[in-house]
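Problem: given the chain below (319 residues), write out its structure.
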Amino acid sequence: MNARDPKHAGEIDAVAADWLQRRQFWNWSPDDEAALNAWLEEADAHRVAYLRQAAVWQSAERLVVLRPELDVPEKSRFLPLLMRIAAVVLVAAFGAGAIAYYVHPREAIYSTPVGGRKTLELADGSRIELNTDTVVSLSKQGDTRKATLLRGEAYFHIRHDAAHPFVVSAGDYRVTDLGTKFVVRRAPSRVEVGLLEGGVRFDAASIEGAPQSALLTPGDVVVADANSMKMSKEPLGELMTALSWRRGVLVFRDTMLEDAAREFNRYNREKLVLQGADVAQLRINGTFKAASIELFARSVKDLFGLSVTHSGGELVISK
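Solution.
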């Protein structure tokens, strides 16, 4: 594909922006530097895109210099001049998209649409998997690696580094990694944390007027809202089942239909609506693709002899 193709150019810009984000926000190793230089060597378009992204930061006074100057290959020594040109000319042509990617110095925001999933591979070896309709920001404050869950649900597989703690914030709640795998779900009025491996410290800024903390061990689940913090122990198998969204499926085991419908509605723009308490309290077992809401509705219809009708953007299930 021609390097001037807008779609291809946009993809190159996205990769360049990702390199900048990794270089600025997370631990940067000699291997990372070598990989970046190899990518820059692949094509002039890569070098121009990288400099374009950096120039946007500079022009907006958003580029924080955390590392030494990039070691540009011998054949690319014309690039300091190109950098000066990019700061004046290319920023005007491409700045809007890049600034949308970087919304604050040393902060990047990632999101998924309804029904979407995304995996973030961090430069320090950590991994974050975003569930449906989720927004998370990543930043680095001093020696602290920080993720802020603004909405939705995310699974964290964090490479522990005592010198660079990893903290997840969700509203008034904080989860500090002690070397671990855990999941955080932020709903409008509460936060839920489940620990699969390792350990975390959970801190609530204010519950009934007083801060509270808890150390979690594998199998622990904490549910906190403005008035209470409750911790329970769940079998690890149950926690893994709750993470079936990572495979794009929903698993129900003796689940009330109203709870199953609520889960499906998180992943689909078309919504399930149950009419009648007796319908809502029916129980179901099975594994379903999260995006197959109509198949689920038909299965419920056949299993319980119910009626399913379409109404606008809703699937109404009734007797």
